Amino acid sequence: MDFFYQTFIAKFNYWIYVILMMIGLFAMIAKNNLIKKLVGMCIFQTAIILFYVSIGVKQDARIPILTKDEVPHGGHYTTEHHDGHKDHKADQERPYIDAKTITNPIPHVLMLTAIVVGVSTLGVALAIAQKVHLHYGSLEEDEILAKIPLGNDG
Amino acid sequence: MKPMKLAALLTVIATGGLLLYATSDLPDWGDPLSPANAGDLSTHYIQDSRDDTEVPNLVTAVLADYRGYDTMFETVVIFVAGLGILSILGQGKRVEPLAEPVASEGNRERDMITITTCRLVVPIIQIFALYVIAHGHYSPGGGFQGGVMLGASFILIALTSGLPDALKRMSQERAIFLAGLGVLIYAGTGLLCMALGRNFLDYEILHKVLGGTGVKARYDSMLIVEIGVAFTVMAIMFIIYAVLSSKGRMRGGL
Questions:
Q1: Which CATH class is domain A2-57+104-147?
Q2: Distance CA A57, CA A104 (A)
């Protein structure tokens, strides 16, 4: 039972990510259709995103946005009034932030950009696939390979 | 084709097995003491970004301030991806948006219900997108999310009223200009920091331009940078749709 807990329950996020990743990898290697390969690439990408985000999770932690008590609205405006010297009173009143109670923001930042960049690189891939289709009239790999003129050695 | 699939399956199973074997060394789900979660970097971001930037949304603070280089070059990647799509499929010459859609090129009967609904919904989408961009400091949001929403609103116009109609509002030249403008805003903010004698994208010195304290300058320049990101993302998302849906001819479309 302990082995079961250690291997599956405590690591279930890694199981899901590995399974998704293998589905994507298999589609990229084995599928004949270029669009299906791209779908595989997207599944692979989703697996990586899931992996990163799941690493940043902390038990019972809240989202990485501080509350109104922790950051009073317009805090930087109040410090301005005191002729250069900082308003230390305002700083002391702020509650201490325990890093354990807030989800790790770094994986979120990395994946936020990765999702949008993934969409645009997928756009490039689709554009290339469309160009291939315009040129060879097919998206099946074997049909395209049959139409590519061979060199001297072939 | 069969042996190829079998070889692929064996490769995939072997890779998956190795990865699963490696998970025994990875931290448990939700472990607050794992190296990634309890490391100095993440603790610093969580505890000190309040005093450094006054931004409640830690993701925005890390995205636009601490990891500004990363985000800037992600924006450049998106920009280059858009230019790549145009150079792969585009015509290479200036495409005039057609005043009168050619009958043979996707000028089907447009449904009045979808066009009217789209006309009502698009302004709301765009206002909400602007809210998401502007409110990225306080709630989930920012340039990437808002930019995608703005792009989606133009794609919705292209889907309902046809691509020529959308291109009248956002022509290819205008989209490229806006995409470049976004990168320029971002990089220009960084260069301004350099011109004022600090490192690239060290926003603190910008209080000389923006007024207020150094903390407020970091707070404000994050918004400027997010607006730049939003311009690029919006324009490139629309370019991707416009080019792919019309096979690069920028007319007709779906």
A1: mainly alpha
A2: 7
